[in-house]
Amino acid sequence: MSGNVIELNGKDFEKKIEKGNWIVDFWAEWCVSPNTNIYLSPLNSKPAQKLKVGDNLISYKDKLEEDSVIRSLITNKGGHCKRITTKSGRVIETTDDHAFFTERGWIPAQDLTEEDKVAIMPVRDNILFVGSSDNLVSEKNFESFGSDYKNIQKYLFELKEKSLLPLKKENENILIIARLIGALFSDGNLYKNKENNLREISFTLGQNKDVEDVIKDLSALGFEKVHVSERTSENDINGRIFTTHTFRVKCLSTSLYLLLSLLGVPEGNKTNNKYNVPDWIKNGELAIQQEFLSGYLGGDGPRISVKVLPRKGRNPYNSVNINDIEFRKNTSLIDSGLSFAEEISGMLLNFGIKTGEIFYEANNYLRKDNTRTNIIHIPILSNFSNAFIMSQIIGYSYCWQKQVISMYAGEFIRELLKKRADWNELYLNSMELSKKGFDYNKISQMLKINQITAYNWIVKNVKPSIARHNMKFDSWLNNSKNGLSEAFLWSRIERIEEANLPEVQVITTEKNHNFIANGFLVHNCGPCKMMKPVINECAEEYKGKINFGKVDVDSESELGEEHEIRSIPTLVFFKNGKQVDRISGYISKEELSEQIESVF
């Protein structure tokens, strides 16, 4: 604030305001519930309470970009808050002042209505990572390399320096490693050349965004020296020419190479080698499996698509399509390939994804090494449940093109499944009320449902149609994307409830002052900071007539309690030390001036 606004604290508060006219701004940077997921990328989040200064998270200004956290702390001054639920079932708990991006612009939670649409990013639902103190890799494991590596002590030192040795199961970098390993099992590999002592970890990727994401994860592990190259190639497959443009990211770190090898990543050409999903992944906690599958599906996984298909004489319907997971295996190693496919299928089932019978087909294409391969298929049943889990629970790391398409489909399915669940709940409630003796007329009034529907359920014993939703994907997508940039959608608010949070997380970012919380695009400046220029201008305009002060209620909690500050910002008006008026929430300069003239 300007020099005309005085910082007040508990030591001299009473003495300062005992004479003259004062307006004191009780402010703070209250924010969201501590268990809110704050997204570092569309697929990765941290609970707000674990967010640290220096963490990079998703921000938005004309396009998605990174922003840095410059303040993150828990305050016990939550109190009166809001719980907001959208039509798609996304929920967030936040302080009254916390601003959401809507069709009306940035609006504080306390001013939202059930007519508002809020901007959301259809991010993945992350699974809580627990971990344990058990060692996954220790120094002793490196003895298996024998005398092949003369500088083994150097590599051990590098890994220790990066806190990757010993590698314990509680190390949060395990999730990044699992994600990178998933990508290495699909469109990546470990390659070594003994003649020139070359060892590289390489990833083949489709877009610049994917390159950035891999480099970001490697850097988070401490490996920042990478080489990026581009390649355009033409392949003649059965007389058809296919042109592909790819990026290759290479990390030439022997220490990381050795660590990944010990963690179960196969070396060399995977098509010609036997391998399995490492035990620590396939038998590990779901958060680890989630990251591995995300990296793997980013390469070999199918896209999720929803189309509206016509039906003769009937209304069109939404149809979901999920292609097979496919990979190639040398004809002599087909049993190994089928075993790996069964492991992937089993991990998908851990998340509720049902697959069909695994099969393989001959591939007539003769490879450059004069070998032939079979294409192994893992069929994914094309239903809404599978599509939702793949897109909104697992996702596609390092393949932004697949991820964006699947995010749109997944958010539509999220809303559709919620509508079905709500409709089924109405049916069950109707049945319960019927057992209690209410007739269908009364039930229709009580549950606010169509009288004919209630009659069919209660009298004619008609089961509820699970397809009742009246949404079609094409029109839904057009309406949901109207005026928004890539990766964001509008979602209408279904419910706004009062919530009493004993504590909230304070988050401040460096540049754009917004972030993604539980999928919602929210602002961390809020009315407190929006009030700053208003108070500065009034302090200048009424200089000599009115004194302006400010109190940070996080730092001066006793003052906040003494003056019963339950919402921020709150402006308290004093005459000779006695409170004569107060205003809560953001107001314009004109409104504040009008109030000043009426009070003083």
Task: Characterize this entry briefly.
32% of the residues lie in helices and 31% in strands. Helix 11 (440-447) crosses helix 12. The mean pLDDT is 90.
**Contiguous helical run count:** 16
The CATH topology of the domain at 132-270 is Endonuclease I-creI
Mean of all residue-level pLDDT scores = 90
Q: What portion of residues belong to β-strands?
A: 25-35%
Main β-sheet, spatial strand arrangement: 1-27-2-28-29
Helix percentage: 25-40%
Instruction: Let me know the CATH homologous superfamily of the domain at 132-270.
Output: Homing endonucleases
Proper CATH architecture of the domain at 132-270: Roll
The secondary structure category is alpha+beta
Distance between the termini: 23 Å
What is the C-level CATH assignment of the domain at 132-270? Alpha Beta
Question: What is the molecular shape?
Answer: globular
How much is the radius of gyration in Å?
Answer: 29 Å
Q: Based on DSSP secondary structure assignment, what is the total number of beta strands?
A: 29
Major β-sheet profile: 5 strands, mixed
